[in-house]
Amino acid sequence: MSSLIVILPAPGSASAAELRFVLTPEGRSVGSHGSAAAALLPAASGEIVALAPASALSWHQVDLPRGVGPTSARLRVVLEGLLEDRLLDEPETLHFALQPQPRAGTPAWVAVCDRAWLRSAVQAIESAGRRVSRIVPEFAPDGPPAMHVLGEPDAAHLVVIDAGITLAPFTATTAARLSPAVDSADAPVVLAEPAVAALAEQWLKTRVTLQQSAQRWLLAAQTSWDLAQFDLASSGGRRAFRRISALGRALWSAPQWKAARWGLAALVAVNLLGLNAWAWKERTALDGKQAAVRDTLLKAFPSVKVVVDAPLQMERELAALRQSTGAASAGDIEAILSAVSLAVPINRTVSAIEYSEGEARIRGAALNAAEAAALDASLRAQGYAPRIEGDTLRVRPLQAQPQVGP
Question: E strands within 66-123?
């Protein structure tokens, strides 16, 4: 199931005619990336994730009071009170987003950004018919310590993740201050985009790991962060759908579920083999029974040369044998009329009797509902199948009922 990651333009920048995007076929690899107008973004069969750039967010750590959680109605007011002294803008103009699965009584990270910017950036995507499922940060402070060198050589900047997120221009002076931390035993990993990798190695005097921006955005989309909270939150139904979709994607593609996927595939394969083996066994047993019936027919009636429907052919041969020897059968007119005489109410007369191919048709025996039910039960007990059509009673032996189907 493919997913589309759309990078939101930074606040204060001119309204970009094109948006950068990454299309991933299964959530683990970069399928294609580039930039396009909102209406021309590639289609995705899965979710559409909006990514907020690092320059748009500020990060703050707070201690949530006990009794206040992600679903608390007072959460927004509590966050405003906790962050009031740290914010440069009025709280009502800002958007807050709490980290995933926070616990009361323990420090929790809060992302803060301009509310109007975030709302307009998301609306620009959704106005093109692309419903945004989640909003994720480009970097989150709850990840492992790392240094990211981004941009171009003449305009490089640095993102440091270590007990928070620090953004700064990447200059020789900045690199000199960071060199002792890079050389330490517990040094954070240094990642750089290809355009500034050589510059980062020169100034930091260490080897760096290459990471393209598309790969970085893909990793950001794989986190459990969702900045769409409070007034930007989706309805309960959409949140449930997102959770189910995220679980489905994790089960389908997440590395930690690889063993479970193989186990499920093996279970399905074993069941298919078992069903095929059971079907083969049942088919073999059925073929054996059919062969036994054919053998019985051929042994009892050697005149039969070709077997098409063994039970029907055997019945016909038996009828012919009875007729040739003069033996009575349940399908004879005498036997049918005898059975009917025991079932029809006393003093009831009929207007006509017809007989053809083992079936008697008796006209004029007008029966009410109770009499018809009693007649049906009596004849069936004697081995006959009655059928009333108007004032006509049709009777034939049960074993001589017409066969339906092949």
Answer: 94-98, 107-114
Select from 97, 19, 92, 25 the least CA-distant residue to 58. Answer: 97
- Classified as helix, coil or strand, 321 is helix
pLDDT at residue 249, rounded to an integer = 59
Q: Residue-wise over 275-311: b if at least 16 C-beta within 10 A, else e?
A: eeeeeeeeeeeeeeeeeebeeebeeeeeebeeeeebe
Outline where DSSP puts E strands in 74-129.
94-98, 107-114
Which residue has 């926070």 as its token pair?
102
Which contiguous run of DSSP H or E holds residue 35? strand 32-36
Task: Supply the pLDDT for residue 245.
Answer: 62
Q: pTM above 0.90?
A: no
**Phi, psi of 255, deg, nearest 5:** -60, -35
Strand order through the sheet with 359-363: 352-356, 359-363, 392-397, 384-389
Per-residue DSSP letter, 164: S
Low-confidence ranges of the chain (pLDDT < 70): 14-16, 183-185, 234-256, 323, 326-329, 399-406
For 227, the token pair is 């900045």
CA 88 to the chain's CA centroid: 45
Residue with tokens 């950001």: 220
Joined together, the tokens standing for residue 167 give 């953004």
Q: What's the pLDDT at 383?
A: 87
CA contacts within 13 A on the Cβ side of 106: 4
Helices (H), 153-257: 172-183, 197-204, 213-221, 236-253
Which helix H or strand E contains 148, and what residues bound it?
strand 146-152
Contact 298, 364 (CB under 8 A): no
Q: What is the pLDDT of residue 364?
A: 82
Q: Cβ atoms within 10 A of the Cβ of 195, count?
A: 16
Which tokens sit at 45? 């069969």
Whose structure tokens read 């589309």? 4
Distance, CA of 73 to CA of 168 (rounded, Å): 37
Look up residue 87 and give its two tokens: 């914010």
